């Protein structure tokens, strides 16, 4: 059975199916890449908790950067946030994001239950 949490007109914040929670893309406003990454990861933490999961259960994370020049700043915050020994499979690429002020977007899939 598919469970949808906080479903809106275009998307659900979380979709749970067959032991995996799929989180909607997370973006945040802020002046620096580090600030936007910190806020996004706080939002990911909250959604993981709501899904009955945690950082330790992340399976895959896709990260879109508006500018690959921000890769080091992303990793500075990311490396401190990911629990040792629980790094998910990860992909990172450059993409034009929904609004010009956005620097990063996170897409997370995690096991739950």
Textual characterization of the structure:
With 113 residues, this protein is α+β, with helices and mostly antiparallel strands. Helices cover 26% and strands 33% of the residues. The chain has helices at 33-50, 71-81, and strands at residues 3-7, 12-17, 20-23, 58-65, 89-94, 104-111. The protein has a 6-stranded mixed beta sheet with strand order 1-2-3-6-4-5, covered by helices on one side. Strand 4, helix 2 and strand 5 form a beta-alpha-beta unit. It is globular. The mean pLDDT is 98.
What labels would you give this structure?
single chain; 113 residues; alpha+beta; six-stranded mixed sheet; 33% strand
The helix content is: 25-40%
With strands numbered from the N-terminus, the spatial order across the biggest sheet is 1-2-3-6-4-5
Strand percentage lies at 25-35%
Helix-strand category: alpha+beta
User: Biggest sheet: strands, sense, closure?
Assistant: 6 strands, mixed
What value does the Rg take, in angstroms? Answer: 14 Å
Strands, count: 6
- How many helical stretches? 2
Mean pLDDT: 98
The poorly predicted ranges are none
Q: Please report the distance between the alpha carbons of the first and last residues.
A: 14 Å
Shape: globular
Secondary-structure element pattern, one letter each: EEEHEHEE
Annotate the secondary structure layout:
Layout: E1 3-7, E2 12-17, E3 20-23, H1 33-50, E4 58-65, H2 71-81, E5 89-94, E6 104-111
Parallel strand pairs: 4-5
Antiparallel strand pairs: 1-2, 2-3, 3-6, 4-6
């Amino acid at each position: 059975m598919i469970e949808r949490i906080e479903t809106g007109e275009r998307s659900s914040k979380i979709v749970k199916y067959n032991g995996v929670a799929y989180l909607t893309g997370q973006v945040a406003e802020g002046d620096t890449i580090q600030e936007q990454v910190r806020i996004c990861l706080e939002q990911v933490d909250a959604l993981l908790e709501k899904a009955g999961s945690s950082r330790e259960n992340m399976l895959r994370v896709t990260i879109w950067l508006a500018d690959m020049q921000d890769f080091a700043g992303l990793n500075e915050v990311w490396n401190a946030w990911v629990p040792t020994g629980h790094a998910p499979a990860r992909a990172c690429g450059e993409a034009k994001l929904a609004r010009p002020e956005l620097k990063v977007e996170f897409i997370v899939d995690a096991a739950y239950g």
